[in-house]
Amino acid sequence: MASLQPVRGTHDLLPEQNRLQDHIAQVARDIGELYGYHRMSTPIFEFTEVFARTLGDTSDVVTKEMYTFEDRGGEQVTLRPEGTAGIARAYISNGMQQMSPVKVSYYGPMFRYERPQKGRQRQFHQIGAELLGVEQVAGDIEMIAYGAHILKSLGLWDNISLELNTLGDPESRAAYRDVLVDYFKGHFDKLSEDSRARLEKNPLRILDSKDDGDRELVANAPLFAEYLNEHSQEFFKSLTGGLGDIGIGYDLNPRLVRGLDYYCHTCFEFTTNTLGAQGTVMAGGRYDGLISTMGGPQTAGVGWAAGVERLALMVGEAPAAPRPVALIPMGDAAEAKCRTLAQTLREASIAVELGYAGNMKKRMKRADKANARLAVILGDDELAKGVAQLRDLDSGEQQEVALDQLAGVIGKR
Prior knowledge:
InterPro entries: aa-tRNA-synth_II (IPR006195), aa-tRNA-synth_II/BPL/LPL (IPR045864), Anticodon-bd (IPR004154), Anticodon-bd_dom_sf (IPR036621), His-tRNA-ligase (IPR015807), HisRS-like_core (IPR041715), HisRS/HisZ (IPR004516), HisRS_anticodon (IPR033656)
Oligomer: single chain
CATH superfamily of the largest domain: Bira Bifunctional Protein, Domain 2
Largest sheet: 8 strands, mixed
Number of helices: 15
Domain Aminoacyl-transfer RNA synthetases class-II family profile: 1-329
Shape: elongated
Protein name: Histidine--tRNA ligase
Radius of gyration: 28 Å
Subunit structure: Homodimer.
CATH architecture of the largest domain: 2-Layer Sandwich
GO molecular function, one term: histidine-tRNA ligase activity
């Protein structure tokens, strides 16, 4: 048993790490409420088809990274590798088009079988948000502002850049796709094996290839901007103008893409140079064709997701836990009284450290280790008088307080 370790690519979140991740998730949730986005949760596993249809059968996630298995009923199910597909499935399953526009956020674990590295695990956590049913560019602007607000509130904004691109409408995308296929066919023998497989099904994914040979070809590939129709140009112009109105700058990245056909128009990433090669902190975009791809009604959509582990690396330390009050009983009668006193204080929302045994010296040492703010010292003499000694552990000052007034006095402190 001593040799047991967590599975590769997973890790235990000890209290301090858990507090940090909870803090990030809570900041995201609180800011989401300001924008009208409310938390929802989908199952951790779905029918495999939910992800295979939405992520594309040639994507690395589907072909190499999904945790897929047959359950005891013979169904093919998959641990969720990302959050958007489950939200889209829930939108269809629950008839949520009647609630349009739908504004939701989420937080939870995701699973991908990939090489573990800094800030990237096989079980990881994401925060994310989705806006369904809004075709107007105002939705894209709001979604980017929402993400930026979170990064600002976490104190990360000074080390963040917004990269932005447009994928155009379906007409523009189709025109660009044809040009791109012709270009890469002319260099077919130089493409990586993965990119050759993508050439017919989703050639835009080649633009995102990490293969060095592919990247050399991509550097000279035609640019999407040259094939945008008037509507697509106007949409992007409205987006950049709207971001300017709210003071959010951006860097245009013409190679920023999403490979699947249901993506359109806005494509964005918040990036940093503080995490090494894994610079993307939050990524999102518009996906007006996703719901219909899954068999639902034609529904506009835009959203983003962010890895909590990466955000945690940037934030660094969890907010300090509330400093407790240490109860120090001296004697059996005081021990019994402190048990009831601890419950009273906790029900008054005061954190309490109550040791289980030991003399005063040991209990004071434990109070110091717990970073207690105050100590309540109670012995037979104090019980007889109905008081306790309240000691400030920072200044050393001590005062006598009536037991029935203790919660109020501590609350003010």
